[in-house]
Amino acid sequence: MQVLAALAQRRRWVSVYFGWRPNLPDEGDNHLFELALAAWDTENHFRALAATGDVQAALAVLDRLDAADRE
User: Do residues 6 and 59 make contact, with C-beta atoms less than 8 angstroms apart?
Assistant: First the structure.
């Protein structure tokens, strides 16, 4: 519960960047795939760190995303 509360306090929109583009039949759906992949990757990384009990390391993942978004 403590991890979720900390995450909720630090939420922020981030830009999604990838070096490749999916090639779905409907070109308009590619951005949805990119967003889903970015969310999955971030969530898995965050959960892995949070599962170790290191809330600060988990939140550092979000800090790095925020810093990259500001550049």
Answer: yes
